[in-house]
Design goal:
The chain is an alpha+beta fold and 882 residues long. The chain is 38% helix and 25% strand. It contains 24 helices and 36 strands.
Length: 882
Amino acid sequence: MTSNEIRASFLKYFESRGHRVVPSSPLVPNDDPTLLFTNAGMNQFKDTLLGREKREYTRAATSQKVMRVSGKHNDLDNVGPSHRHHTFFEMLGNFSFGDYFKTEALPYAWGLLTEVWKMDPNKLVVSIFKGDNGIPRDDEAYDIWRKLGVPADRILEFGSEDNFWQMGDTGPCGRCSEIYYVRGGSGYDPEIEIWNNVFMEFERSAGGKLTPLPAPSIDTGMGLERVTAVLQNKQSNYDTDVFTPILSRIGELTGRQYGDDEQRNVSMRVVADHIRSATFLIGDGVIPSNEWRGYVLRKIMRRAMRHGKHLGLTEPFLHTLVAVLDREMGDAYPGIRTNREMIEKTILAEEHRFEAVLTEGLPLLETEITKVLGTKSRVLSGDAAFKLYDTFGVPFDFIEDTAATQGVTVDKEGFERAMEGQRDKARAKSGFKGGDEPAWFVEDRAEINALNDAFRGYDTTTMVGVPIAILYDDQPALTDVLREGQSGWVVLPETPFYLEAGGQVSDTGRIYGAGGEAVVDAMRRIPVRRDFPRAHHVRVVRGELRARDIVTAEVDAEVRNATRRNHTATHLLHAALRQVLGSHVKQAGSLVAPDRLRFDFVHLQAIARDELDRIERIVNEQVYRNTPVRTDVDVSPEQAVAAGAMALFGEKYGDKVRVVSVPGFSMELCGGTHVSATGDIGFFAVVAESGVAAGVRRVEAVTGAGAVEWAQQTRARLDSVIDALRVNPDQAVEAIEKLQSETKRLAREAADLKTRLAMGGGGRTGGFDSIDVGGVKLVAQAISGVEKDGLRDVADQIRGQIKSGIVVLASTSDGKVHIVVAVTPDLTSRIKAGQIVKEIAPIVGGGGGGRPDFAEAGGKQPEKIDEMLTASQAVVAKLLAG
C-alpha cells in the first residue's frame, strides 16, 4: 500500500463505522493562544472534549497535519540523525465524544491492523496502565485485549509516565493503551509504538482529585509515516514513499544518491523533512520572520538551506521541491496545490535573503572569531553569537561550524539564554500565554445551565423584554446589583450585541430598564463552555441593574451600520486583491471597526500605485451595482469551501457555518454582520498600503461617511499646498520640483561654505594643527557648525593635505555628537580607522565602525568631546604599539 492509500483506507474504515471524516485543521491553531502550532489530532476537538462545544456528530476520524518543534514536543535537533523523527508529520486519529469507549475502541484498532492492513498479530504487542499514584490498574483494557486473542505475555504494563495521558495539570485525563509493532532482528526500531488509544475518563481538579467523567471519550493517535514504514516493511521512515520522491529529487539536484554516504544522508533527510514543514506552514499562512511562528519557520528553512550547502548546492533550490509535494500530496491537501505559486515565491525570497545574510554576516562572524583567537579560552561568547543570529540571521550551527574550523568554540549556554530572552519578548508581544484567565463562577442552577449563546443581532439591533440572567462586578464576582457609577458584566439569555470575532469589533450601546440604565462598552466570552452566553461590560449611568430585571438591549445602530459597511467592504477588497494580484493572496489578519477597515494579506512585494487604483475601482464598481448581499446559514464548512467560499484567518468554524456572498464576485465563511446590498457601503477609498512583516502587506481603507470625510480632508490639504505655491493645480508638481532642486542647490552651497570656513586659518593643515604620536601625524579637533556630511569632506581634505597620518574630527548638532576618523592608505596595515572609532566613541556615549581607512560614529554626550579628543592620542599610541 502507498502512503496515500494507507491514509485513505484509515479514514474509510472509520467512516464505515459511523465516524465523520473531518478535514485537517490548519497548523496555526484557531482560538488557542496556548499552542504555537497544532501538535496533536485532538487540538481541533479540544473544546468538544472539554464540554465547551457541541457538534452534530459524536464520532470523528482525521488525518491531521502536525508540527512538533516547540515545548516538550520538539524534535528539531533529532531530525536528520534520526530515521523516525520529523518536524512535520500526519497524525491519523479516531475520536469518540461521549459515544463509544474501550469496548469498541480497542477492537476497532485491532481490526484495522490485523484484518484490513493484514499485520501479523504475532508481531503486535500492547500495553495497559499498571496502576499507580492511587489510580487503579486498567483491568477492563486487559480483559478486552485478552478477548481479542492477545497472549498475556504480550500485554505490557506501565505506569503514569507511559500509560496515563492528561491535557494539562487540570482537566480531562485518563489511562491509555498503546500498540507496538515488533520488527525482530536488527533495525533502527526493533519495537516501535504505532498507535496510542487514550481513554479520557477522569476530570482532574486543581487539588489533583480525579472525578469520573459523566461521558468518557476516546482520543487516539497514529503517525502515518511510522505505520507506513511498518506496512511497507522499511526500517526507516525515509525509505517509504512518503519521502523517497523528495529524496530522489534532491539526489538529481546534487548528483548524489540517497544511501551512498551517511553524512550526506543526514543532510538529505533534513532537507526532505524541512521542505514539508515549510511548505505546509506557508500554505497555512505562516511567513518567515524574526518573531513567534515566523521565527520557527525561518529557523527550519535556514537549517535546510545550510544542509543544502553541505550537499554542494550553491544556488537556491529549496523552492523547486514544492512541486514534488504538490504531485504527491496535493490530492489529500488541495491547499498545497492552490497555493503552490505563493509557497514557491515565499521560499525563493527567503533563499535569496539567506544568501544576503551570509554575504553580510560571514565577514562579521570572521571578525568576531579573530577577536578571540588570541585569547586563552578561544571561546566566542553567547551574546556575540546571538547578535550574529538575531540581527544578521547567521544560523547558530553555521556559526559553530565556522568557529570550529579555526579551533574556536561557542558558548552555547550563553546563546540559549539570549535566545530564551528573545522568545520571552516574542511571546509577550504575540500574546502567547495561558493560565491567566480570571475565574468566572457560574451558579449551578437549571435555568443557568440551560443558557446558550443566542445572538439575535443579524436581524435586529434592539431587543425588548430580556431578563438579566447573571450579574458580575469587575472582579469578576457574582453580584445581585450594579448601582450608578459601578461597572461590571451583564449576561443575557439572548442579545443583539456582536462579540468581537473574525476581525470585527464588538458592538457598543446600552442596556436599560425600569430601574436604571447602563452603557455597554465591551463584550467578552466567559470561558465556561463555548456556547455559553456572551457577557456585556457595562457602566451604570442611572439607577441600578439587578439580576432578573427585565431590560431592553439596544445596540448603537449608527456605529453598527458603519461597522457593517466596513465588513462587507473587507470582503470586496479581499476578492479585488486576488483578482489584481493573484490567487496567492491569503488573509493574514483584519480589523473591522466603525471608522476604518484594515486587511493584512500574504503578498511578497509592495503594491504599485496603478494596482491600488485598479483595486479601488473594482471595489467601487461592486458598490455601484448595489448587488444584494446573500447569506446562507447552516451550511457545512466542507460544502461551503467546495462551492468556492474563502475561510477567514483566525476564525474557528463549527459544523455549520454562515456563508456571506456578493453573487458572482465574493464568497466567504463569515459570522459577522453585513449590509443588505453593496450600495449601502457608499464611497470606498484606500488610504494606505504598507508592509507589516516579511511577505505580509496591509491595506487600510474607509467607507461611507468616513470616506467622504477623508476625501474632503485630502482635498483641503491639497488646496492649502496650491495656495501656498501660488500656482494653478496643474502646475503644482512642477513648482514643487523646482523648489526641491533650489533647496538642494542652496544646501550644497551652504555645506561648501561651512567646509571652507572650517578649513581656513593658515596652520600647517589648513586651520588645524597636528601632533606627533609614535612618529605618526595626528589631527584631533572639534569643529563647530558642520553637519555630518560636511565633516566627512573636511576629514578627506585634511587627510589629503597631511599625506600620511590620522584625522579624528568631532562636531555637534541637535545635541548629538558626530565623529569621523580617517587614516591615510600607507598606515592602514598598522592601524585601522574602525579600531580607533570603537575605542573612542564610548567616551561620548556612542558607538560605530567602518573601513580600515574611514570610520564614523555617533554619540549623545557632547560635553565630553574634549575628553574624547584628548583620549584619542593615547588610543592611537596604543594601537600603533600593539
